[in-house]
């Protein structure tokens, strides 16, 4: 895990230098919050920094470090290996929508949403008790913080890493 923490710290440092004069984009916000150090390391390893610093708009369903830690042992380290960059990229693109979707933009009930990973779908359910996102495994993440606004989109913090798979059922 020490090697992983070193990667995360280096990535966070790289993001914070040279961004003081620019406004806060999705990457800047994530890099400035220790709860997203694993996500920042993954975005860096996948080569997606420039994309997510772009004009957008983007909606990012951002898993916290505890969500990555809940994956089976060794999963994060395996995904961060250069030979697994394609798989890591797919997992990360499953967390991104190419529109700005605030919590208010998500309709009540269960609806399919198309992430940037176009071959997949997410089932987002909004009700009186909040918002959940079912992934391709059939498991659901809960949005624990909604509507962190960035200049190029919005971040919704989730408590689970969303994984592609079979199409999730929307009820």
Descriptive account of the structure:
With 171 residues, the protein is α+β, with helices and mostly antiparallel strands. It has a single domain, classed as FAS1 domain (Roll), CATH 2.30.180.10. 32% of the residues lie in helices and 24% in strands. It is built from 7 helices and 7 strands. The chain has a 7-stranded mixed β-sheet. Strand 5 (130-134) and strand 6 (140-150) form a beta hairpin. Helix 3 packs across helix 7 (85-93).
Q: What is the CATH H-level superfamily?
A: FAS1 domain
Oligomer: single chain
Q: Helical content, roughly?
A: 25-40%
CATH topology (level 3) name: FAS1 domain
Mean pLDDT: 85
What's the topology here?
Elements: H1 2-16, H2 26-31, H3 37-46, H4 49-52, E1 58-63, H5 65-69, H6 75-79, H7 85-93, E2 96-97, E3 109-113, E4 122-127, E5 130-134, E6 140-150, E7 153-158
Parallel strand pairs: 1-7
Antiparallel strand pairs: 1-2, 3-4, 4-5, 5-6, 6-7
């Amino acid at each position: 895990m020490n090697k992983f923490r070193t990667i995360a710290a280096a990535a966070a440092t790289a993001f914070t230098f040279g961004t003081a004069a620019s406004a806060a984009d999705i990457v800047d916000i994530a890099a400035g919050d220790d709860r997203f150090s694993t996500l920042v390391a993954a975005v860096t390893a996948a080569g997606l920094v420039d994309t997510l610093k772009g004009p957008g708009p983007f909606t990012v369903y951002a898993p916290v470090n505890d969500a990555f830690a809940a994956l089976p042992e060794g999963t994060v380290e395996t995904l961060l290996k250069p030979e697994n960059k394609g798989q890591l990229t797919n997992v990360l693109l499953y967390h991104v929508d190419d529109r700005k979707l605030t919590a208010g933009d998500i309709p009540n009930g269960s609806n399919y949403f198309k992430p940037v990973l176009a071959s997949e779908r997410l089932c987002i359910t909004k009700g009186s008790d909040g918002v959940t996102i079912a992934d391709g495994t059939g498991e659901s993440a809960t949005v624990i913080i909604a509507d962190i606004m960035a200049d190029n989109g919005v971040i919704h913090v989730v408590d689970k890493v969303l994984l592609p798979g079979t199409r999730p059922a929307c009820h």
